[in-house]
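hi support,

uploading two proteins for the ticket. first:
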Amino acid sequence: MVRYDADVLVIGGGIIGLSTAYAITRAAPGTRVTVLEKEQGPARHQTGRNSGVIHSGIYYPPGSLKAAFAVQGSAEMVKFCAEYDIPHEVTGKLIVATERAELPRLHGLAQRARQHGIPVRELGPAQISAYEPAVRGRAGLHVGTTGICDYGAVSRQLASLAQDAGTSVRYGAQVSVIGRRATAVAVRTAAGEVLRARALVNCAGLHSDRVARLAGDDPGMRIIPFRGEYYELRPERTDLVRGLVYPVPDPAFPFLGVHLTRGIDGGVHIGPNAVPALAKEGYGWLTVHPRELAATLAYPGSWQIARRHWKYGVGELYRSLSRRAFTRAVRRLLPDVTAEDLIPAPAGVRAQALLPDGTLVDDFLFKESPRMVHVLNAPSPAATASLAIGREVARRSLKHL
C-alpha cells in the first residue's frame, strides 16, 4: 500500500499556488495539501514584483478566460482585501489616447467595457484634465472599477488561511525530481526529501515549463522571461499623478505599455518597459543564467517572434538603455516630467508562454495529464483574478483524486 504524505502537492508559493491550496481546503475540507516553494517566503517573484493593480477586465475579449476571470475577480479581490484588512483602494483609472490613430481602439475598448458590464465614461481633453491635471491626450476613457492593493499581503493571507485549514506550506523546498506511478506522484526536493501524493499541481510560474518536463509532460510551449523595468517619480514630483493612467494598448502585444500607477504607499511607479531577460529570474542586465539563456535561444519560437517583431523589440531595448528615451515615452502622457524626475525602481519578470511558431500565448493555459494539472500561462490579470483561478485549478486537481 502506498503511503501518501499529502493528497495534493502544489509546486509554487506565488499567489496562484496559494490560492489553489486555499480553494482546495474550502471545496473539499479534510483534503491534505502541501505547498512546496523554493524561496524562503511567499510571492517573491511575479506576485511580489508587479504594479499592484486590480484590473477591471476591460482589455480582454468576451469568451476568453482572461475576461471571465478578471470581471469576476476584480470585485472579489476588493471584497477579500476589505474582509482581511489588506491595504487597497478602488481608484478608477484613465486610458488615454495621445494620437488620432488610437481613437478607434479607444472607442473599441469602451464598447468592450459595456459588453462586460464595466462602468466607463468617455472623455474629451478638458475632462481628462479634470481627473489628471498634468496628463494630456486627445481623448480618454475613465474605468470605474480599477483599483490597487498589496498582492504580497494577499498572498500571505491566503497562506495563513490555507494553513489554518491544515495545509502545509514548506519554504526553501525546491523540487528537483518528479516521478509518476499509476497510483501516486512522488517528488524529491533539492534537500533530498521525498514526498508522495495522489495528485500534483504545477503553479511554478517562471519555471512552469521546466516543472512540466520534469513530470514527463510536453508543455507544448516555452516560458520566455520578459523583464519589466520601472522608474518611480521623485517624492517631490508625485503630485503630477493622482491615480492610474494608461496608454491605449497595442493589440499586437500582450503588454499594456508604459503607464503611471500611484500605489498603496503613495509613490508613483512608471513602466514597465518590456525587454527579454537573460535569466528566468533576471531582474537586471547583469543577471545571466547561461543554461536558461541557451534554452531560450535554441527555441524556434524565439527566432520567429524576433523576426516578426524586431522593430518593437529594438524600441524597448533602446528605452531600457536610455533614460531620456524612456522619458520621451512617458512624456506622451505626462508632458511635464523630466529625466531628472525619474528614479530607477525594482524590476519584475513576466513569465510569457511562447509557442514554437512564435505566437505569444495571450490567455491562461492549463494542461492536464494523469494525476497532474499544469498552469502553463498565468498572465495579467492573474493576481487580480487569483481567487477565481485558484477555484478553477482546485476543481481540476480534485478530479484527479
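and the second one:
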Amino acid sequence: MKKYYVVLPLLFLVIIYGFGKDLMKTQTYGVYIGYPTGYISEFNNAHSVLLNEKNEIITHFGGRNATAGQLGHGVQNSSNELTEIPSKIEVMWFSFTENQFWRGEFELPKDELTRLLNKEKLLDLFSTRQGVMHDKYDEIIVNVAPQGEVYVYVGGFAVKHIGTYQAKAVNYDWEQHAKDTWWLTQDVIEPRDEYVKMADDDVELIGSVDIS
C-alpha cells in the first residue's frame, strides 16, 4: 500500500509537468500587420502564414494594409485566441509603391517568443483591483517595408523587436493573388497597373515613403 502513496503523487506530478509543457507551447495572441507610413501594401493571404516546426500552418494572415502605420505597430489581422507559438513565418506581399511582389520564409526565435508571450506580465496599474496581472505582450506584429524588408515584433502594453529579415522580389500571377487575397469580391481588377493607380489617393492621404 505504501508503494501507491509514493507512485501516485509522482504520477500526478508527471502529468502536471507534461500539461504545463504543452500549455507553454500555446498562448493567447493575435497577428497584426503594418508598414512604414506611406508604404501601401497588400499581404497575400495564402502565402502569409505562421508555421510550426513541422511546417504545419498555425494561422493565415494578410490582406490590404492601408492604415497610417509605422514600424512596430499594426492593425489586427487574426483573432486574438489561444494559438500555438510559431517557429517559422512565411510572408508575401504586393507593394503598391514598387509595383512588386516580395516573398520570404524565415525562422523565428521560438524560445524568445515563448518566454515573452508566456511570462512577461504587467501589474494592472490603472485598476482598483490590486494585484491583477496582464500580458505585457499579446500580439505578433509583422511589418513590411521597401526593398523587401520584414520586421517582426511582439506587442501589447509594450513593443519589442525580435527579428529583421530580407524577402526576395518574385513574379506572381496577378489573378492568382486576387483569388488568394480578395475574399469579398469575385471580380479581379485588371490590369495590375490599374489596381496600383487606385492606391494613389491612399498614398496621398497618409504621406509618401522614399524608397531610394
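thanks. also noticed: The chain has one domain: 28-183+191-199.
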